[in-house]
Write the structure tokens for this entry.
Amino acid sequence: MLIVIRTPHDVERTVPHKYVVMAHEFGHMIGLPDEYFGVHSNSTMAKLRLDNVWPSTLRSQTVTTGNKRLRDMQDGFTQMATQANVTLPNLISTTTTPKRPEARYERQKVDEQNDQISQRKQQLKNTFGQNSWAFKKYRDTHPYLYAPPTLSAISNSIMHSGSEIQKAHFVTIWSALCKATENHLACTDWEIVPAE
């Protein structure tokens, strides 16, 4: 695929070569949804679980609600991917919290330790004052602890944060071919195959 962008001569800006965003935006032009907003559709969640696409540590347990536009787009995308018999890409938010029980336990443990530190600081401050040696020494030797950070979720998919075009990214073209040839061929006569 070649996309040419013409910039007027009097504009002081350039378009980088290999500009992945152009291919991403072209994906929107052929009807593909963004994949970095997480899952907003129950049918999408069900297919992702069937396809077993996500690693178990990152798999979402819930569907994000409240965005009808994303839900409708994902429903349509999922329906086409199911009909084309291809797996869905990772529709996962750009940041996520590890779902493992160990990660939740670590966060809880850190919160409890920080509560104890806060209580002790307050006791020393009330007893000896904010400028006391005892308060300052405890404060300096007991900094607040931080739980494991949220993960920056990335995907190699062109519609998320990568540059890979996957089988599912052809489903809108596949669907159009099915519709255009429905009087002559069955949809199953069309198959999305990877480039060699």
